[in-house]
Each structure stands twice: as structure tokens, then as C-alpha cells.
UniProtKB/TrEMBL annotation:
Gene3D superfamilies: 2.40.50.1070, Vaccinia Virus protein VP39 (3.40.50.150)
Keywords recorded for this protein, A-Z: 4Fe-4S, Iron, Iron-sulfur, Metal-binding, Methyltransferase, rRNA processing, S-adenosyl-L-methionine, Transferase
Top EC class of this enzyme: transferase
Record's protein name: 23S rRNA (uracil(747)-C(5))-methyltransferase RlmC
Protein transport found in the keyword field: no
Active site: 336
Pfam families linked to this entry: tRNA_U5-meth_tr
Binding positions for S-adenosyl-L-methionine per the UniProt entry: 212, 241, 264, 309
Phylogenetic classification of the source organism: Bacteria, Pseudomonadati, Pseudomonadota, Gammaproteobacteria, Chromatiales
The enzyme's E.C. designation: 2.1.1.189
The UniProt record lists the keyword Iron: yes
GO molecular function, one term: methyltransferase activity
Length: 378
């Protein structure tokens, strides 16, 4: 796929974009097979592909330039601002949304943050769209509250121009380092959730909750988890690092009466999961805002299925050893880092057989991939 910004050397985020997509997928699968080879998987499925463009429903834009001429995109080390509002990764509805945000910055006279001088206020705008409703969540990342009054004053104008804007908030990120967002979130709209729906399962996204950037592939990932476990005898499931509940809610909604425990450190994400569980009228969901590692290490009895979706670092040796001690019958492991998964499999396959494995191309034109494996106790 041709990208003018990549060709000009202004944006290198999509490192593989000049390679034919079928070759990208083939290369990722080869690397995946190489990582899996030492663990003798019973079945490795073909990779699940993505659309090549318009698949990304989350944008993280550096705001540069000035309030009269704001630039949304990225900032090179040279200080040059690169406009990415026409990026091919975003759906068509993002271009007019970006244009409205730029007009809003001009209207409210928001001063973009100047990295070198450490002056100005507006650092980033974070934009998310629900693939099911088409509605948006917009977040302004500010250095301080100095522009908060101006944003509040002009927000009704933006809402009138942009009826698809469901949720708007301000995040305060006062430190000078390259950190995307801070801890403080100030909600500016009555709505506090952006509603999403994948495979008829409701999911509720809040400003600081994690959610996949590629909902079409995420839907396939969740459905695969349901399909792989459909014939297993399961009465209890733990969903560790559950986020807003994507995996656990899919499994529980397909298996009435199953005892689901979801663990996630973010209280906002747990509130989202509970809201979705109530809408689904699930019988026995138990979502708790706890550290997943600490929860697992404190347990003495295992569920039938342990579902884990850890951050890029993986589970690590301590949690893997605890998992081996608990000895659930099955482990379903979703990972955004195949290398850390392979390290964990080195520990887990001492007592577990790798039954199924599949790659999901959540991140086309990059070397990254999401992978899913199912393990069965030997």
C-alpha cells in the first residue's frame, strides 16, 4: 500500500507498508511457527488477516503548530510537525472529525505544547470511534488546567457541529517527559462510556480503559476463544488482566451458568465489565478491581479454565510457577507479544500440552501481531 508520508520519510510507524500484504502475513506466520516449534503444537491455524486500510479506530495525535494553525500528527526529532489527518489506517469518518477538532482548537485558542521550550498546554488529542455505532470519544491531554475553562466554554459548539461526539474529557499530564497521559481525567460530558458491540456482546469503553485498535480482528479473536472452548467441560473461568471484559463476557454469554471471575487493576475498566455483564443478565459474574498477579498468587484452588491476556511483558516466571501450582485443566493465553509468550511457554509446557495456536493480524504493516494459544494439562 502506498503512503506518501512513508515514501517521503516523514512517518515510519508502518515499517512494512511497502511490502505486499500477503507477504507481510506470510512473514509473520513464519516467525510465529519458528517460535512455536520447540513446543510441538498439535494444531497451528492459518493467520487471521486484517483489512489493509481503515481498520484503526483509535488515534493518538501529537498537537503542534500554533492555535491559529494546529497540526495533528507527530513531531519529528528535528522539530518538524507532520500532519497525519489523512492517514490511510483510519476510517473515512476520522478526517472530518480531525477537521472539527482543529477548528475547535482555533476557536478556543488552545495553545499547543512546545516541547523544546516547554511552553503551551495542549499536548495530544486521543480519538476513538465505536465500530458498532460510529460514535466518538475525544480526549484532550493538557499540561495543566489552564485551558479547561476555554474547552468547557466552547464544547457546546463542538457538540452541535459534531452530533456523533458521545464523550469528551480532559486528561492532565503535567510532566515534561514523553508520557501519553496522566492519572487525572476530567469528564466534560454527561455520557461516561463509549458503547461498543462485538459479536453481539456489549462492551463499554471509558477514557482510560484499554481496548484493541482493530475491532474487526478483535471480534474474530474473541469468537475464536469461544469456539476453541465450546466442547470443553467448564464450570469456572478466571479472566486475568480482563480489561473491560472482552474475553470473559464472550465466554460467559455463550455458556449460561458458568462461574466467571474477571480481574483487572483498573477500577474504571471493571465498572465497564460489570455494566456489560448486567446488560447480558449473566448469572454468576464476579469482576474485581485487583492486581492480577497478586490475586493469582493468593489463590489455593484453580478454575477449570484460566484465561490470561497480560501486557507485553507476559506472565513472567513467578506467575507461571503459580499457574503450574494451581494446575487448571486448561489455559487460554492471548498475547500481543509472541516473544514473551514463547518465554512463558517454556515454563508452562513442562506440565501443559500446546493444543492450538493462531496469529491474528491486529497490526498490519508492522512487525507486531496478536496471538492466541490453548493449553491442556498433561
Amino acid at each position: 500500500m502506498y503512503c506518501a508520508e512513508f515514501a517521503a520519510g516523514r512517518c515510519r510507524s508502518c515499517t512494512e507498508i511497502e511490502q505486499d500484504y500477503s507477504l507481510q502475513l506470510q512473514h509473520k506466520q513464519q516467525q510465529w511457527l519458528s517460535l512455536l516449534a520447540p513446543f510441538a503444537p498439535e494444531q497451528v491455524l492459518a493467520p487471521y488477516p486484517s483489512a489493509e486500510s481503515a481498520f484503526r479506530t483509535k488515534a493518538k495525535m501529537v498537537v503542534s503548530g500554533c492555535s491559529e494553525h494546529p497540526v495533528l500528527g507527530l513531531l519529528l526529532n528535528t522539530g518538524e510537525a507532520v500532519d497525519l489527518t489523512s492517514c490511510l489506517l483510519y476510517p473515512a469518518a476520522f478526517a472530518p472529525a480531525f477537521a472539527l477538532v482543529q477548528q475547535f482548537i482555533q476557536r478556543a485558542r488552545l495553545q499547543p505544547y512546545q516541547v523544546a521550550e516547554r511552553k503551551g498546554e495542549l499536548k495530544f488529542i486521543l480519538l476513538s470511534q465505536s465500530s458498532s455505532s460510529g460514535r466518538f470519544m475525544l480526549r484532550f491531554v493538557l499540561r495543566s488546567q489552564n485551558h479547561l475553562a476555554a474547552i468547557r466554554k466552547h464544547l457546546p459548539w463542538l457538540q452541535q457541529q459534531w452530533p456523533e461526539l458521545e464523550l469528551c474529557s480532559v486528561n492532565l499530564q503535567p510532566v515534561a517527559m514523553a508520557q501519553l497521559e496522566g492519572e487525572t481525567e476530567i469528564l466534560l460530558t454527561e455520557n461516561s462510556y463509549l458503547a461498543e458491540r462485538l459479536n453481539q456482546v456489549p462492551l463499554y469503553l471509558t477514557p482510560q480503559s484499554f481496548f484493541q485498535t482493530n475491532p474487526a480482528v478483535a471480534a474474530a479473536l474473541y469468537q475464536t476463544a469461544v469456539d476453541w472452548t465450546a466442547d470443553l467441560s467448564l464450570h469456572s473461568v478466571w479472566d486475568l488482566f480482563c480489561g473491560v471484559g472482552g474475553f470473559g463476557l464472550h465466554l460467559a454469554s455463550s455458556r449460561p451458568g458458568i462461574q466467571l471471575t474477571g480481574i483487572e487493576i483498573s477500577a474504571a475498566a471493571i465498572a465497564s465489565a460489570r455494566k456489560a455483564a448486567a446488560e447480558l443478565a449473566l448469572e454468576q459474574p464476579d469482576f474485581m478491581a485487583l492486581d492480577a498477579d497478586a490475586f493469582a498468587l493468593a489463590q489455593q484452588q484453580a478454575p477449570d479454565l484460566l484465561l490470561v491476556n497480560p501486557p507485553r511483558r507476559g506472565l513472567g516466571s513467578v506467575l507461571c510457577n503459580q499457574l503450574l501450582k494451581l494446575a487448571p485443566e486448561y489455559v487460554l493465553y492471548s498475547s500481543c507479544n509472541p516473544q514473551s509468550l514463547a518465554r512463558d511457554l517454556t515454563n508452562l509446557t513442562a506440565d501443559y500440552q500446546l493444543v492450538k495456536a493462531q496469529l491474528f493480524d491486529m497490526f498490519p504493516h508492522s512487525q507486531h501481531a496478536e496471538v492466541l494459544v490453548l493449553l491442556r494439562k498433561k
